[in-house]
Amino acid sequence: MRINFNVPPYTGKEFEYIKECVEAQKICGDGKYTALDNEWIEKKTGCSKALLTTSCTHATEMSAILAGIKEGDEVIMPSYTFVSTANAFVLRGAKVVFVDIRPDTMNIDENLIEQAITPKTKAIVPVHYAGVACEMDTIMDIAKRHNLLVIEDAAQGVMSTYKGKALGSIGDFGNYSFHETKNYSMGEGGALLLRDETYVDEAIIIREKGTNRTLYKLGKVDKYSWILPGSSYLPSDMNAAYLYAQLQMADEINKDRMDHYNRYMEALKPLEEKGLIELPVVPKECVHNAHMFYIKCKDLEERQGLIKYLTSNDILPASHYVPLHSSKAGLKYSEFRGEDRYTTKESERLLRLPMYYKLTNEDLDEVVMRVKEYYKFN
């Protein structure tokens, strides 16, 4: 396509940093750039510890292990999310319990969580869709009253905040993604954020194949051994180097994306005012990161027609998640509690438009023009 849905971010420093790793003969995990990335996340979010991982999927799996999720437990989350959110807990033997979303933000409806809690419930997993925060005060209050853990899926939330607090740093555990489709990328990658220091040592051991090898490297033990069940969740330092070039320019990238977002909003507002489409909603207590720009069509048929029209004009849009509770695995490993008033209906209406760092105004304006053409709006 001439105008792609996504172009991975690139600043120009990536190859220089990767070359440094190669020349230093340090390309495995936990090198210089992994440490720099971890430090950046910790300073930006205020979390006690950040640990770079091979993916957000693996960060979520680590969260499930640290949370002690086991067979027979239940974990509450929205069905409108990526499969990794659920997989991490299903792999531990837990049952995933879905509740409906809010149609305004596409986030979990905080008012439906409490009625889904049973004696088996162990955690709540809010997903911050499009980098817009869930209603975390309510969720944290519910968790406190029911003695539950909160595991934030902030895959799309780097640089976003809720009432001044960084997403991923509010719950007990937070998970970031640095996949190539995210605002900041290392190709494949993620990070685990720990709010409380009490989990740090265990997390480091789990991440390092279940060994105390990190303590050995720090000179705190004279040999390392197997301590806990774990796995290899360390990304290559070359990937970390690629990411660090972008974290150094995080504010510039964020501003660029916000400029795109605001340009879309201004240009498409007249279509919303005519009742032709709906635009994203950002609650006043949230500062988002322009991770995506989406519109909502009247229904699935209209959305599919718009996709066909845009692609015929060399523009690649994208739909998003098919609700997990309707999938083959979802039918086996999960339960939807309450009514599906919005999850399926809203997911079928949502269409994401091209959004990436250094998207040109000319290309963005052409996307807008084609959307207006489809709706015969002059």
Outline the structure in words:
The chain has helices spanning 14-23, 32-45, 56-66, 83-90, 136-146, 200-207, 213-217, 237-247, 250-273, 300-312, 328-333, 343-349, 361-374; strands spanning 49-53, 74-78, 95-99, 121-124, 149-153, 161-162, 165-166, 173-177, 190-194, 286-287, 293-296, 334-336, 350-353. The strands form 3 sheets. It has an 8-stranded mixed beta sheet with strand order 1-9-8-5-4-2-3-12, with helices on both faces. It has a 3-stranded antiparallel beta sheet with strand order 7-6-10, with no helix packed on it. It contains 13 helices and 13 strands. The chain is globular and about 75 Å long. The chain has 2 domains: 14-247, 3-Layer(aba) Sandwich (Aspartate Aminotransferase, domain 2); 250-374, Alpha-Beta Complex (Aspartate Aminotransferase, domain 1), CATH 3.90.1150. Strand 2, helix 4 and strand 3 (95-99) form a beta-alpha-beta unit. It is an alpha/beta fold and 378 residues long. The longest helix is centred in the C-terminal third of the chain and has 24 residues, at 250-273. The two termini are 25 Å apart.
Map the helices and strands.
Elements: H1 14-23, H2 32-45, E1 49-53, H3 56-66, E2 74-78, H4 83-90, E3 95-99, E4 121-124, H5 136-146, E5 149-153, E6 161-162, E7 165-166, E8 173-177, E9 190-194, H6 200-207, H7 213-217, H8 237-247, H9 250-273, E10 286-287, E11 293-296, H10 300-312, H11 328-333, E12 334-336, H12 343-349, E13 350-353, H13 361-374
Parallel strand pairs: 2-3, 2-4, 3-12, 4-5, 5-8
Antiparallel strand pairs: 1-9, 6-7, 6-10, 8-9, 11-13
Helix pairs in contact: 1-8, 2-8, 3-4, 9-13
